[in-house]
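Structural prep section.
Before we set up the soaks we want a predicted structure of the protein with adenosine-5'-diphosphate in place, mainly to decide which crystallisation condition to try first. Input record follows.
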Amino acid sequence: MQSLNKTDKIILQAKKEGRVVLLEPEAKAVCTDYGIPVTKFNVAKNENEAANFAAKIGFPVVLKIVSPDIIHKTEAGGVKVNLKTPEEVKAAYNTILTNAKNYNPKATIVGVLVQEMAPQSTEVIVGSVKDATFGQTVMFGLGGIFVEMLKDVTFRVAPLTKQDALSMVTELKAYSLLKGYRNSPPVDINAIVDTILRVSKLVMDHPEIKELDLNPIMVYQTGAKTVDARIILEQSF
Ligand code: ADP
Ligand code: MG
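Run finished without errors. Recording the tokens verbatim:
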């Protein structure tokens, strides 16, 4: 029998537990398995553990709720950024738990994710949805208002070629922002193309993935880093 890779194991574990949502740490482990750079992280179960993980990762850090019942973490008061000391980390740990319980008293809480804080930069989104007609598709856009208000996004049917991925980036209305403008330097277009191609491979290898969201990915002059990842599996698998 062919041995299971890391992504297969994570998906299998979720199925065993009857879950369709892969938690952020699981989705990020899948990203890592596919060579997509993500922020370093650890899941803490108490405030002291959170402070210890933060010291290991290096300050500042970001703390986030980990719960299969809370998909939009910010909405639940479940994200605290730029925590600079062990005391701030411990306080944020407790605030996040309180907020999560108030938001959804029935939510199962797995723990609190302690992660490396990625420097602020241009935020982009790479996503995927499984379409009833076309199968796996890949989406690309800029973060925030560009996607939500201006609907400046592009789609392709997977699997994508490098040329497909590059054209997704260059056809955005906001492409000029990525190329650099006034005092903003150009961002690493190759790093974006690479992420799009890796997502294409991931969803082609795993037809049981119904939705994937890397939102946001921080893109720099050199390189890119995914700071939030979400994967939803098909119910029937
Ligand atoms: P949500 O579930 O609400 O989408 P996110 O994990 O995307 O939660 O966090 C909300 C916002 O916080 C992100 O859009 C990003 O701007 C910021 N953020 C989250 N994680 C990090 C990180 N590790 N480094 C820097 N900024 C982050
Ligand atoms: Mg997000």
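Observations: The helical segments are 6-16, 24-33, 47-57, 86-103, 145-148, 162-170, 175-179, 189-205.
Flagged for discussion at group meeting.
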